[in-house]
Amino acid sequence: MTATLVLLRHGQSTANADDVFTGWTDVPITALGRRQAHDAGRLLAAAHLLPDVAHTSLLRRTITSTDIVLDTLDRHWIPVTRSWRLNERHYGALTGRSKPEVGSRTDPATYRAWRRSWATAPPPAPPGAFPPWNDDRYAALPPDAWPLTESLADVHARLLPYWIDSIGTDLRAGRTTLVVAHGNSLRALVAHLDNLSPSAVEALDIPTGRPLLYDLDESTLRPLAPGSYLGAR
Hints:
The chain is an alpha/beta fold. The protein has a single domain, classed as Rossmann fold (3-Layer(aba) Sandwich). It has eight helices and six strands, in the order βααβαβαααβααββ.
């Protein structure tokens, strides 16, 4: 039996457009981001991929993108589950800073490791500086789970239980499952699905607004073939 999984990075956000480190900061999507979400819905419709359930992070850029995709598909009524475990990577002290500005003040190897590596986390933020502090959506999250910074490996560690317990449950039940998340939470998930090496993860990039289709073995949830993007680049 085959399980159908569709991964989608949210449409372009204002922070993407401004080229800043966003992390857990909540920002809207741009007009281009809305068009990308509409286009993603049309691609899914053309491929006859109608999700039965959807999963998003707690951040509005994924929530809005999901709403647009499902409205385009006339599937606005399906169950949608949201979890902090699908949130973008927490960028620590880099949060809100311009990427070019940080790059100009940092040696290239360190800057690349902060952005692309598996195991290196950016410098931590001061406690209370950024979400989840003083944000009601994380009130039930144990304080010892509140990140000050995260590496991609940290994102993988907090995402994996949700993959197994929630997304995996839907897939094993035969539900076509749409996951709308972020560049780094999806990089961590793709690294898990494709069993990527650290060097392969470093080169991996997930574009905004392009559905990535996986056919999985329903019992093991391992890909039957590499994931494939819908639509031309």
